[in-house]
Amino acid sequence: MSLSKLSKYIFKVLCSNNGSLSYEELCSAMSDIRTVSDLNLSSILSNQQLFLIVSRTENSNVTTSGLTSDSQIISASCIRLCKNYPDKDCPDCGKLHLCRFFILGNCKFGEKSNTCKYSHDIHDFHNWNVISLNSLQELNVNELRVLLLQNDLSLLPEICLHYNKGNENRRHGICSRQETCNKMHICSHYISGNCKFGAECRRSHSFYGDDVSALLKKLRLDENVIQNLLKIYQNRNYLKQFHSSAGKEAATAFDSMRTKDNTSNEEICLYFVRKNCSFKEKCIRVHFSLPYRWQICKKTWQDLPNMEEIEMDFCDPNNITSSAIPPINFETMTCESYQVRRLSTASSVTKPPHYILTTEWLWYAKNDFGTWTEYENQGQKCSADLENFYLIENSEGEFNGKPNFKEIFQNFKSFKRDADFRRRPRFVSKQDVERKIQRTPKTQEGANVLESKNIPENWDKSALVDIGFKCIQIAQSSEEYKKIESLFQSSLQSTRIQKIERIQNLGLWEIFQWKKEQMKKKNGFQNVNERHLFHRITTPTIVDAICNQNFDWRIMTHEGTLYGNGIHFAEKASWCFDMYSESTTECNIMIMARVLVGESAQGHRNCHQLPSKDGTRLNLYDSCVDSISDPSVFVIFEKHQIYPEYVIEYVNSL
Predict the structure, then answer these.
(1) Looking at 512-574, which runs of residues are DSSP E strands?
(2) Residue 374 — φ and ψ, nearest 5°?
(3) Which of 210, 358, 477, 645 has a Cα-to-Cα distance from 582 of 20 to 30 A?
């Protein structure tokens, strides 16, 4: 399991256990996965954006990573509910648009939010985008509820300080509001876990006391939440203290162990850089005008000035710091006491060669003279090869702060085990970006209209475009129409097709053909298993985006995950209705696509990536299916294996 996936797994474990566990409990809860080293665990838990570590006692056993067995690990997040929703229009606020009482667990309008003016849906486009940007897609509603309750201080009432002062014999302390007080009348030392009086304390130690119970009833708190309020409040206090200067000094310090490249996992949208992302605000990637983005965290992530100059410094492997004042340390990714990150477009080795504005990563090694030079093997530069190995290990394998060079470089004879390596991008200026964008219409990412090969014979050659797509309505009298109608209505006889449109996207077609050739090479130059399959569209507004940019499983995966977290396709159109538990009944659009299903493995709901054929991440299956012996549903994780070919609009016959 990669470091990134392991971090998400640990975070989910914490949220499913009411927000925190001791280090010993966490290790026990992770016993169902393979052994994780203390070093790996320490590296993950050092991320203060996700985890807070609190040292509880001084006399507990210390692990090799410096953590003690009873160190408390608390899940932390900057995600919050929007206070202006729904009274103000704030689509880009970066906060959740959800019902406050739904998060508290018991909205009086019911779970389905039929009459509540606030949303109860964490999967609507705004909320899912916020959740995705915070990398919380793995959490279910209850786990997200716990995370919000202990991190968003506006959700639960504060402890009444006036109640905790004055004569202990007085029921309400010195609180003048008494029964009408909107704060918790409960012992603050009990909440902090250090009340020296214990059961003999005259302040309340119960959330079921008269005053507290009345307040909780007003808030309509779910009983399950009430049962775990003590832990939630304790976690809240630790997180609140941590965000103060005193709390930072009191919290146990753990040195951050960062990777050599020090870049963020968030990916910049290639289409937006080219100014033509059809998914717009629904896009799960970061929208920015450059293929890189430097930010500093001062409560929230803020763009740094002079981004181009910082990038130029970073691209030079000889630089450990930027030339700006104050400087950025590229090894620790910090500026003074603040964390810094670099967002990037996808690595060039992960995309077809004609994609523009991907990030080309170069690998450097220090020679005998102490100079950093691009790594060569037998006189050949091999940055692309090293990058491929690196990405496989970083995203799918056991990753310990830097790649396992012993394994990665075993194919390179000139490798020296004790050599230092650096991974830095090739510099691209703003002018370079503009020049590449201006050249794109001539090539459509390498697919010139006049020079393109293997264009389907049934395409309308007069309707080919350099950029984007054209939808051509097919005549009902044509053989093409009758063939598609027959395939569609073979399982949906009770429908009537209104129209069929052919999608002509030269860029996607060229990429699809390129992917087919890659799969052929991988398969010993044998034909690839290609099928015509159906996908039901439950959100009609994204049809144009699919026609322009293809499917994106990270946006659409919540529509159906029966056999894996990818795009589900069915051999028969009728089976598409069985794959989606949540869909709009009025939606009457189906896409018929060419799909390179290749070699398939058995899929399941918790399948997050393609299974391996031999236990390595270099030899994967091409798709997942509902049944190996007689597949009818196919799950695709790589969009280049898909060409959306036809849009079918239909109505149900009476």
Answers:
(1) 530-537, 567-570
(2) -60, 135
(3) 645
153-183 burial, b at 16+ Cβ within 10 Å, e below that, comes to eebbbebbebbbeeeeeeebbebeeeeebee
Kindly state the tokens that stand for 241: 């203290």
Which residues belong to CATH 1.10.10 in the chain? 3-75
CA distance 450 to 377: 39
Instruction: Give CB contacts under 8 A, 24+ apart, made by 572-578.
Output: 572/490, 572/491, 572/534, 572/632, 573/487, 573/488, 573/489, 573/490, 573/491, 573/492, 573/534, 573/536, 574/491, 574/492, 575/491, 575/534, 575/632, 575/633, 576/534, 576/535, 576/536, 577/536
Cα 370 to Cα 385, 417, 543, distances in angstroms: 24, 16, 55
User: Do the beta carbons of residue 29 and residue 72 sit within 8 Å?
Assistant: no
Angle (CA) 558-559-563 rounded to 5° is 80
Among 408, 404, 355, residue whose Cα is nearest residue 515:
355
Pairing of strands 633-636, 623-625: antiparallel
Joined tokens for residue 618: 């270099």
Asked whether the CA dihedral 410, 413, 419, 425 is positive or negative, the reply is negative
Look at the domain 461-652 and name its fold.
Answer: Phosphoenolpyruvate Carboxykinase; domain 3 (3.90.228)
**What's the pLDDT at 114?**
61
Going by C-beta distance under 8 Å and a sequence separation of 6 or more, which residues neighbour residue 651? 495, 496, 498, 588
Collapsed DSSP state (helix, strand, coil) of residue 83 = coil
Beta strands (DSSP E) in 270-412 are: 292-298, 300-303, 334-335, 338-344, 361-366, 372-374, 376-377, 380-381
Domain span(s) for CATH 3.90.228.10 in the chain: 461-652
pLDDT tens for 371-392 read 888 877 656 667 887 787 777 6
Query: Are the C-beta atoms of 561 and 524 separated by less than 8 Å?
Result: no
CB 620 within 8 A of CB 607: no
Give the whole-number percent of the chain exceeding pLDDT 70.
80
3-state secondary structure of 128: helix
Give the span between the Cα atoms of 72 and 93, in whole angstroms.
32
- Alpha-carbon distance of 22 to 14, in angstroms, equals 10
- Euclidean distance between the first and final Cα of the chain, in Å? 52
Q: What is the DSSP secondary structure assignment for residue 571, as one 8-state letter?
A: S
pTM (two decimals): 0.50
Amino acid identity for residue 302 in this structure: Q
d(CA 503, CA 501): 6
**Segment 408-431, tens digit of pLDDT:** 555 444 545 445 678 899 999 999
Would you call 451 helix, strand, or coil by DSSP? coil
Spatial distance between the Cα atoms of 495 and 593, rounded to a whole number of angstroms:
19
DSSP symbol at 461: G
| Residue (of 239, 221, 294, 186) closest to 50 by Cα position | 239
DSSP letter, residue 260:
S
Task: Determine the pLDDT at residue 345.
Answer: 94
Contact 338, 298 (CB under 8 A): yes
Per the CB < 8 A criterion, the answer to whether 157 and 183 are in contact is yes
- The closest alpha carbon to 530, from 512, 547, 557, 548, belongs to 512
Under CATH, which number does the domain 3-75 receive?
1.10.10
What is the token pair recorded at 636? 């695709």
